[in-house]
Specification:
It is built from eight helices and eleven strands. The chain is an alpha+beta fold. The radius of gyration is 37 Å and the shape is flat. It starts with 7 loop residues before the first strand and ends in a 6-residue tail after the last strand.
Length: about 325
């Protein structure tokens, strides 16, 4: 890790590791071959889980690896938020009010423009419909007059006209008053007060808050974080085995993802998972003398072959700090 590049801040809360900065997420993936899992929902599409955003959640093995190589530090996030002072809260409140005012101004301007355009469209549409109705009435009257002339001559036409005039109801005052109101655009003469909602912006990262101070709560080693009670992984042999296997595969240039769907601890990719399919489903054996039942070997082999992968058994030697590998692939007979 270059001394000029500041270490990535991994924020720890309830013994889980989070990365909130988008640039840090890109650096972790492109430079350090660590993927993690995005878990944040999108503000306007909160009911879907196809496209997710910050924070990035790291597995314990990924977290330990980044700290061991000096690429990241652990931050005790709850304790990094200090008690804000009155002036700090006043400045924060002023920023929130300015944000709300700008949102309301923009929403009011946008609504006014849309109302003007909608009013014009409504007026033009009403005029067009009115013209069509008048033309249709003229055509019907002309057709009716022609039919009466053919049947009874001018006397029939006069009789029909007098009958229509007598039977046609006169427009009521309510009807004559309603028509102009409905045809008047909503933007003209409207006394309805403008109302608009606003969004309270909560920043994803607390780095911009004046009362956020991670410097006193940062730990550059797993041991120091463990002594402070912030982090406790790895704490036993199976956890040390998982960290050792993960780091050894990472050194060989592989990307790792969760492998529980395929019967292992990890999926092992030859490159970025966005570009490649995984070649192996890896299981960790925490001791070179651990027993392995024949049924497990058969199950791993068949499951790996059915998903077009080879199953990788990774044996960890805690004394030598070494990993041995054995791949299993189901072969057909005949």
């Amino acid at each position: 890790m270059s001394s000029e590049t500041p270490p990535i801040q991994i924020r720890i809360s309830n013994k889980r590791a989070y990365v909130w900065d988008v640039d840090d997420i890109a650096t972790i993936r492109s430079r350090h071959h660590i993927c993690g899992v995005l878990t944040g929902t999108l503000p306007h599409l909160s009911q879907q889980n196809v496209f997710l955003g910050v924070p990035l959640v790291l597995t314990p093995e990924e977290t330990v690896l980044l700290v061991d190589i000096g690429a990241a530090v652990l931050v005790d996030d709850p304790n990094a938020h200090l008690q804000p002072s009155i002036p700090q809260l006043e400045r924060w409140q002023q920023e929130q009010q300015e944000s709300i005012k700008s949102q309301l101004t923009y929403a009011e301007t946008k609504t006014a423009k849309e109302s003007v355009h909608a009013g014009r469209a409504t007026s033009e549409d009403a005029m067009r419909k009115r013209k069509e109705r008048e033309e249709r009435k003229k055509a019907e009257a002309a057709a009716r007059a022609a039919a009466l002339i053919e049947d009874g001559g001018p006397s029939g036409l006069l009789a029909s006209a007098s009958t229509d005039a007598a039977t046609k109801p006169s427009p009521s005052p309510a009807t004559s008053m309603i028509e102009p109101i409905t045809s008047t655009p909503a933007s003209e003469g409207s006394n309805i007060p403008f109302t608009a909602s606003h969004t309270i912006v909560i920043p994803a990262s607390s780095s911009n808050l004046e009362w956020y101070s991670p410097s006193a709560c940062s730990y550059s080693t797993i041991a120091s974080a463990s002594e402070a009670g912030v982090w406790d992984y790895p704490s036993n042999l199976p956890e040390r085995a998982r960290c050792g296997v993960f780091k050894d595969l990472w050194k060989q240039g592989y990307f790792m993802g969760g492998g529980i769907k395929f019967g292992g601890e990890y999926l092992v990719y030859p490159g970025d998972p966005l570009r490649y399919h995984s070649h192996f489903a890896a299981s960790v054996v925490d001791s070179p003398i651990a027993s392995l039942r024949p049924m497990e070997i058969v199950a791993h082999g068949r499951l790996g072959t059915a998903t077009k992968k080879a199953h990788l058994l990774c044996g960890w030697d805690d004394e030598k700090q070494e990993v041995s590998y054995l791949s299993i692939e189901w072969a057909g007979f005949g």
